[in-house]
Amino acid sequence: METLTALTLAFDVLLALLLLLTAGFALFGRNLFRAIVLYIAFGLLLALVWIRLDAPDIALAEIAIGAGLTGALLLSAWARLERSDDNQAADESSQSGQDQTRTPH
Amino acid sequence: MTRFIWHAVRLLAAFLVAGMAVGLAFTIVSLPPASPELALTVADNMTKSGVSHPVTAVLLNFRGYDTLLEMAVLLLALVGTWSLAPIQEMPPVTPVAVLDSLTRLLTPLIMLTVGYLLWAGAHAPGGAFQAGALLAALGVLLNLTGWRLPIDATQCYLRAIMAAGLIAFLLAAANGWVHGMHFFSYPHDQAHMLIQFIETFATLSIGITLFTLFLLGRTAPH
Amino acid sequence: MTLIYLMITCFLFLTLMAGMWRILRGPTAADRMLAAQLFGTTAVAILLILAQLAEQPAFRDAALLLALLATVTVVAFVHRAWQTISESEDESS
Amino acid sequence: MVTALLYGLTGLGLFALGLYALITQTHLLRKLLAINVLGGGIFLVLGGLTRRLADNLIDPVPHAMVITGIVVDIAATALGLAIVMRIHALTGHTTLPEERE
After folding, report:
1. Is it the case that residue B100 has pLDDT exceeding 90?
2. Out of the domains of life, which is the source (chain A) (predicted)?
3. Per-residue pLDDT averaged across B59-87, rounded?
4. How far is the C-alpha of C92 from the C-alpha of D3, rounded, in Å?
5. For chain D, where are the alpha helices, taking DSSP H only?
6. Does residue C55 belong to the interface with chain B, where contact is any CB pair within 8 Å?
7. Across the interface, do C91 and A41 touch by the CB < 8 Å criterion?
8. Which residues from C are below 8 Å from A46, CB to CB?
9. Among residues D31, D40, D35, D52, which one has the least CA distance to residue D11?
10. Beta bridge partners of B220
11. Contact between chain C and chain D (3 or more Cβ pairs less than 8 Å apart)
12. Does pLDDT of B222 surpass 60?
């Protein structure tokens, strides 16, 4: 019986630590894309925590929203930001070369 | 100099946040044992609620106002994104055979699960929010794999579906008046039917609203 | 039997830690994304075992949902982020 | 209930991390992530504290509140992202004006 309690506690402590670690790296890491992937992993871990707290309703909501929607939403927004950054850089470099031929707008 | 101030501010923020966290931690540890009163009240009233799953009973019956306002918040968020200027549509996705057959396989499965979650809500974990979020995820999947969904802000029927959850909720709440009871009290024998009615429309509304929120605003032609 | 289940859960959790290392190290975006998918798959396994342990069939619904929705993130990655990344790599090279 | 207390304190840790990141990080996407982590932490505190009841007695009221909260959270995130897109389209920056160096 004692082994069981110890193992359960070990699992809980590991889960809590990994949760904090994932959140910390997601919020303070340098690479933004990595932060988004870590946030997706964070959502999954959070769902596991809700299962451990005997709240399957919340786990279902967290999985449906965290795994399905937030991840896609963030990745999509990130791609939009990156893409327009690239476009702007390309525009500026082409504009400096052929400034006169373009009509200002 | 500004760099120095910036570092000082960071340090101050770290101290303040850490201090608050320690204080809150002490509070949490020294809290008296949780009171079972609320859980017992819910358990006592379960027979009146119309469903057998306590969380659904709380969401749609005992604390219906919360859920009603939450549906309104979803709509408000959508109005907020739509009131910004239109955004550029992403370039069209070239269809990929693997993804195409994948979505053809997954779509019926996800639809089935949406229905299952909606049905399960009455007696087991599940319900309108989970089903709605899954529906929205299906929309996102189809949108990302290049299916052009007829989601256009100007279409009237779409707005009607988005508002349907809120309207169904209000109708069910006003039903109390018809029967000479308070606003938001369901007649005992109709409670189950009313909750199912709200949940079905709420699932549709939440699904479409969340999917439209995913588009990050009205899209302008490329 | 419970002991075996618990040990498997803890072992699966250690594989999650390995996946975490891969997310942190990269080196490419695809590595990170695949590691996150491994998170999802392992979480499905853990959920199924916990359902057996706690005798709560509802936990299996959560596993089902997770398995169904894992694709959404991947497709979002492949169609949005991966295209952006490869385009910017093309420009820089 | 050691487990419940443990997760409650974890939630508190997440709240503190999120709050600090919200104050100090300048990139707006990062700020949105911080708000989400902060919210998740608050939900965990709520769930953990109310799970300390005697075994087999689960309080459904906080569960319902957290589910409502999660949906509001995603709606707020989507609105926030739309605003970030707008700021970026207008100014070309992904930070707030007062936080640019």
Report:
1. no
2. Bacteria
3. 86
4. 50
5. 2-24, 28-50, 60-91
6. no
7. no
8. none
9. D40
10. B88
11. no
12. no
Distance CA D46, CA A83 (A): 40
From residue A70, alpha-carbon distances to A24, B89, C22 in Å are 18, 19, 22
- Amino acid letter, residue A88: Q
C80 in reach of chain A (CB within 8 A) = yes
Which H or E element spans position B102? helix B97-120
Q: Within 13 Å of residue B187, how many CA atoms lie on the same side as its CB?
A: 10
Chain segment A1-58, per-residue pLDDT in tens: 678 888 888 888 989 999 999 999 999 988 888 899 899 999 999 999 999 888 889 9
Per the structure, the complete domain to which residue B127 belongs is given by 51-220
DSSP, res B188: G
The CA radius of gyration of chain C, in Å to the nearest whole number, is 17
Residues 21-40 of chain B with CB under 8 A from chain D are 21, 24-25, 28-29, 31, 33-34, 36, 38-40
DSSP label of B221: P
A positions 10-69 inside 8 Å of B (CB): 56-57, 59-61, 64-65, 68-69
Percentage of chain B modeled with pLDDT above 90: 18
Give the number of domains in chain B.
Answer: 1
Residue extents of the structural domains in chain D: 2-99
Report DSSP state, residue B87. E
Report the gap between the CA of A100 and the closest CA in chain C (Å).
25
Q: Phi, psi at residue D92, to the nearest 5°? A: 80, 5
d(CA C15, CA C22) in angstroms, rounded, equals 11
Instruction: Give the DSSP H/E element, type plus range, for residue B88.
Output: strand B87-88
pLDDT reading at D39 higher than 90: yes
Q: What is the CATH number of domain D2-99?
A: 1.10.287.3510
The residue among B117, B130, B206, B216 with the most chain A CBs within 10 A of its CB, best to mutate, is B130
Counting beta carbons within 10 angstroms of the beta carbon of residue B53, is it exposed (0 to 12), middle (13 to 18) or buried (19 or more)? buried
pLDDT value of position C13: 87
Residue B175 in tokens: 């039903």
Residue A40 tokens, joined = 């997706």
Please spell the DSSP secondary structure of C12-76, one letter per residue: HHHHHHHHHHHHHH-SSHHHHHHHHHHHHHHHHHHHHHHHHHHT-THHHHHHHHHHHHHHHHHHH
Contact (CB<8Å) C69/A68:
yes
pLDDT of residue B194: 86
